[in-house]
Design brief:
With 226 residues, the protein is an alpha+beta fold. The chain has eleven helices and eleven strands.
């Protein structure tokens, strides 16, 4: 490919096993230190530093300094969306890690995808918004309808504040486990934050798993009925 975006360069950066492990760890949405990412990748801190420099130079990650530490996170929603889509493609093509465990069903049920809800319940949320006419979907484009705006405000989200952000309100994200769409964008983030605030669910420590309590899941399924 002699013209246009250099997908080979991006693919090479993401495709390295150590960098792939570090990027996957950042899918939790939590900023991690270089030492923590080195542990995730199973490499030395010095090697991790070299990898992280390459990722930052390519605008795939960003870092913030606080005291003696520097904290690394994904650069933006687009990077998270690409990683989730690659996970979906890998699962569809049969390229799945051999290691399984108790967390696997929980990850498939509900997890954080960078900063929004993914898994079966994330797909359920998207399907409910679409089925009830709250969002309009054309291909990869998702738009909030007037009915949807009223629902979002009633659910306790400040839609006016979201409209001032530079991030898109609604984005389509391919769920790697369900292999269907879930909702990303600033609205996806706001919905997940509201779920936390209502006490329906919480993030498991050091994990992407989102655990709903019994009443919280009942309220979630009722609110986001299909």
């Amino acid at each position: 490919m002699k013209e246009g975006p250099d997908i080979a360069m991006i693919g090479a950066l993401i495709g390295d096993p150590a960098r792939a492990n570090m990027l996957t760890a950042l899918m939790s949405g939590k900023a991690l230190t270089a030492s923590e990412l080195a542990a995730e990748a199973g490499i030395t801190p010095q090697t991790a530093s070299s990898h992280l420099s390459k990722l930052e130079a390519a605008n795939l990650t960003r870092q913030r300094k606080q005291g003696r530490h520097r904290y690394i996170s994904l650069a933006n929603d687009d990077v998270g969306g690409v990683l989730e889509a690659l996970m979906g493609l890998a699962a569809k093509c049969g390229h799945v890690r051999a290691r399984t465990g108790p967390r696997d069903p929980a990850l498939r049920r509900a997890r954080v995808c960078y900063n929004h809800l993914a898994g079966e319940l994330g797909v359920r949320l998207h399907d409910s918004l679409k089925a009830n006419g709250f969002v309009r979907e054309e291909g990869e484009d998702i738009d909030l309808t007037d009915r949807g705006a009223a629902f979002v405000r009633e659910f306790g989200i400040d839609l006016d504040a979201l409209s001032t952000l530079r991030r898109p309100l609604c984005l389509s994200c391919l769920d790697w486990s369900a292999r269907r769409t879930h909702l990303a964008g600033s609205l996806g983030t706001a919905l997940l934050d509201r779920i936390y605030t209502l006490g329906w669910a919480r993030r498991e420590e050091n994990s992407r798993v989102i655990s709903f309590n019994r009443k919280g899941e009942q309220d979630f399924l009722k609110t986001f009925a299909v």
